[in-house]
Task: inverse folding
């Protein structure tokens, strides 16, 4: 088990970018945008501008997702080899850090550009909504754990 844990940890870490861009099936990015527009009462011009920003960035994000999948496969292959090559694993780790940095930079650029299309009041509305959703989920998990622990 001690040898499997590092593989699982690294494998999960390298899978994160792929999961982040695919997302869970119930979190369609288009639906999330529509919800943000609804919550903020965004104008038609704001919606068009922000959708355009997302559509311009989507090909880059898809490419980064593919790189994440490739890294995941490289790491899996390295750990499934007859002998694990420390240098190969280190190269995959370094490539993973580089990928994470590029993902972070791309998403940050998109957030700033899209965020500046909204007014400050609209951004506040989004933050308040997000905080309310986090609280709702926290309460849901607390109820779940309480019910589970009561058994």
Result:
């Amino acid at each position: 088990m001690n040898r499997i844990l590092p593989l699982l940890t690294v494998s999960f870490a390298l899978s994160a970018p792929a999961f982040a861009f695919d997302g869970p099936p119930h979190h369609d990015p288009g639906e999330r945008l529509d919800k943000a527009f609804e919550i903020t009462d965004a104008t038609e011009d704001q919606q068009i501008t922000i959708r355009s920003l997302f559509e311009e960035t989507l090909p880059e994000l898809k490419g980064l997702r593919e790189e994440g999948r490739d890294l995941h496969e490289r790491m899996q292959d390295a750990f499934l080899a007859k002998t694990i090559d420390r240098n190969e694993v280190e190269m995959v780790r370094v490539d993973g850090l580089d990928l994470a940095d590029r993902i972070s930079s791309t998403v940050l650029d998109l957030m700033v550009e899209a965020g500046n299309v909204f007014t400050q009041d609209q951004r506040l509305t989004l933050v308040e909504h997000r905080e309310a959703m986090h609280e709702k989920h926290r309460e849901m998990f607390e109820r779940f754990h309480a019910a589970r622990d009561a058994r």
User: Anything to note?
Assistant: The chain has five helices and no strands. The radius of gyration is 20 Å.
